[in-house]
Amino acid sequence: MVTPACTTLSHAEFRVLVLLAAQFTGHNNGALGVTRSQGAAQGIGSDHTLYGALKNLEVHGLIERTCHASRTPPRPAMYCISWESEDDTDWSSSALRATHAYRDWQPPAKQKSRRGGKRQRKKKARPKLTVVGNEP
């Protein structure tokens, strides 16, 4: 997937995407989730990193949430990967076609600085060196 949506991902976001895609068996798209313990086992050390990565993957159009997380019964939020059709599972209501939303995502435009280019450092004035001694 050589698109801006995928190539601009951080290391943690890409790792979470791989965790979700690795769970896909061909008939369970829409029932993919990552728990805190699964993330920790794969090197994602904090909840903030895990949930931030999931949010950014949604923003980039690579995954779509099919079901919110629940405390009773305990389960993580469920997602589907957007390059495959959503399957009819316990957590997704109907089979939908793949959206491929990641194709339309573009990185935000960089803001130009007020100076119109690279910021240049001011040069400090250096005192002139004079040779002392041996004067006629």
Question: How would you sum up this structure, described in words?
Answer:
The chain has 136 residues and is α+β, with helices and mostly antiparallel strands. It has one domain: Arc Repressor Mutant, subunit A. The chain is 26% helix and 7% strand. It contains four helices and two strands. Helix 2 (11-23) crosses helix 4. The longest helix has 13 residues, at 11-23.
Query: In percent, how helical is the residue content?
Result: 25-40%
Spatial shape? elongated
Low-pLDDT segments, ≥5 res: none
Number of helices: 4
The radius of gyration is: 25 Å
Number of domains: 1
> What's the β-strand tally?
2
Mean pLDDT score:
83
The description of the largest β-sheet is:
2 strands, antiparallel
For the biggest β-sheet, the strand order reads 1-2
Reconstruct the topology from this structure.
Elements: H1 4-7, H2 11-23, H3 36-41, H4 47-59, E1 63-67, E2 78-81
Antiparallel strand pairs: 1-2
Quick structural summary:
The radius of gyration is 25 Å and the shape is elongated. The protein has 4 helices and 2 strands; from the N terminus they run H-H-H-H-E-E.
